[in-house]
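Worked problem 6 (solution included).
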Amino acid sequence: MEKLRAASPSAENTGERDLLGNKIGGTNQKTFPGVTVKDWRMVGGYAIQFDFSDGHNTGLYTFDYLKAL
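Solution. The predicted structure is:
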């Protein structure tokens, strides 16, 4: 679950790019010791959204992305 949390595709984790391509936000944290998945839900027919024990619950993990992980 720690690897899954570290790979979160959310803007909170990876940041966002502005119109000029500058990265805004994100985190450099790569490890999340002891983090577990508390809950999850389907999003449409293409992704899963997880609720992690550290409170993180944004980011859509598409099935293709999960397969790649």
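Discussion: Residues 2-68 form one domain.
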